[in-house]
Specification:
By secondary structure, this protein is an alpha+beta fold. 21% of the residues lie in helices and 32% in strands.
């Protein structure tokens, strides 16, 4: 047992067990704080990512993990693959209708609008544009300014 004194000369008794608990708490807190900040930075980097696709994207739906592209003969649009009801992944489909694997919500692949609940909000749309200089479609995983996140 170690005795410390403060400025009033009153002894403070700190057992070895208490000391170890305090140090363990400080180390655990520091580790968790660091982990949180690193993961937050990683999510921000992923959400600001830019993906490039060649000009020859096939007509219809093309899946790319966090988003899918829907191509018509005139345009390409990009939407999130996360259902707006409970955050589950949207299942793959060859038709123009996408279905959530968790609760059965259905979405129109061309517009992202829900066709059948329980989802009531459309899928998040991402910025997708054609770069004529490089001949690539560029998808930015950021929500456009005019659309709520």
């Amino acid at each position: 047992m170690r005795r410390l004194t403060n400025f009033m000369d009153k002894p403070i008794v700190l057992s070895r067990k208490s000391f170890v608990k305090i140090i363990a708490g400080i180390c655990t807190g520091s580790f968790l704080w660091s982990w949180y900040n690193l993961s937050k930075d990683q999510v921000q980097k992923e959400n600001q990512s830019e993906f490039r696709h060649s000009e020859d994207i096939s007509l219809g739906i093309s899946y790319f993990g966090k988003y899918f592209l829907y191509r018509t003969k005139d345009s390409v649009v990009a939407f999130s693959t996360i259902c707006t009801h409970a955050g589950c992944r949207i299942g793959k489909s060859n038709s123009g209708i996408l279905q959530c694997e968790c609760h059965g919500s259905r979405f129109d692949a061309a517009t992202g609008r829900p066709l059948k609940g329980p989802a009531i909000h459309p899928l998040r749309q991402f910025d997708c544009r054609f770069d004529s200089r490089t001949g690539e479609w560029i998808v930015k995983l950021q929500t456009p300014k005019d659309q709520p996140a």
